[in-house]
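Q: Given only this backbone (238 positions), what sequence would you predict?
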């Protein structure tokens, strides 16, 4: 992506972790270079009553609290969410995959609703949310962490943030995990660097790395390995 910056708008009750993430290392540089813009909106600023209440007990009973519709809707309206691709990170969403990230990368702007408590009022999802996305099969108490995971997975693909060669060789790009990496020294606690990496023989290195990727994927992620095998066998038959 080139030209104008990609913009992330995050709605939250806890702005601190978001502000500190955008101020750190590679992200801070991307913001400085004009590749990324962000807005962090405090939902509490849109609460109507004197106590600035943002949560309430669930209709039908049960544990926990629910993020109320009115302050969240007012916050969403204030950022123009109706016209922007809006994502709600939730353990009840579809799994976040490379394909979902690619789809988000194609957007000029994303709105992310970072929830807390048991969840947000369903009517907000019905009225505003384009994608409900889960980052894995476990529950986080902080929607901010999940929202930032999505931001991080997206912005690193924008032109100029990270060298494109680094992205090409990564885990998942072709359905296999990455090969192991080594740097100096050649011997560390009597463990040596694999001979082939010192050989300067580029084709042998390429083959060794591919073998390592296949073996590592088979051990760590049999599901990805089986899918990769099927695709490779399919290609052989073409
Ligand atoms: Cl997207 N949010 C929260 N709060 N917990 C999660 C999650 C998201 N994905 C997995 N667990």
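A: Predicted residues:
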């Amino acid at each position: 992506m080139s030209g104008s910056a990609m913009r992330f708008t995050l709605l939250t009750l806890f702005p601190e972790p978001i502000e500190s993430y955008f101020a750190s290392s590679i992200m801070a540089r991307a913001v400085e270079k004009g590749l990324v813009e962000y807005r962090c909106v405090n939902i509490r600023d849109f609460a109507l009553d004197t106590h600035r209440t943002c949560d309430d007990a669930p209709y039908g009973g049960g544990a926990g609290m629910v993020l109320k519709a009115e302050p969240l809707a007012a916050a969403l309206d204030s950022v123009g969410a109706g016209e922007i691709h809006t994502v709600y990170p939730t353990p009840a969403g579809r799994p976040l995959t490379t394909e979902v990230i690619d789809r988000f990368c194609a957007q000029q702007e994303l709105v992310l609703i970072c929830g807390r408590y048991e969840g947000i009022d369903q009517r907000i999802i019905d009225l505003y949310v384009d994608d409900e996305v889960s980052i894995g099969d476990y529950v986080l108490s902080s929607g901010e962490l999940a929202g930032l995971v999505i931001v991080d997975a997206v912005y690193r693909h924008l032109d100029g943030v990270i060298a494109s060669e680094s992205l090409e060789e990564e885990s998942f790009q072709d359905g296999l995990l990455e090969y192991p990496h080594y740097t100096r020294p050649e011997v560390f606690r009597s463990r040596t660097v694999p001979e082939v990496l010192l050989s300067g023989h580029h084709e042998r290195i390429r083959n060794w790395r591919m073998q390592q990727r296949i073996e590592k994927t088979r051990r760590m992620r049999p599901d990805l390995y089986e899918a990769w095998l099927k695709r490779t066998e399919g290609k052989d038959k073409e």
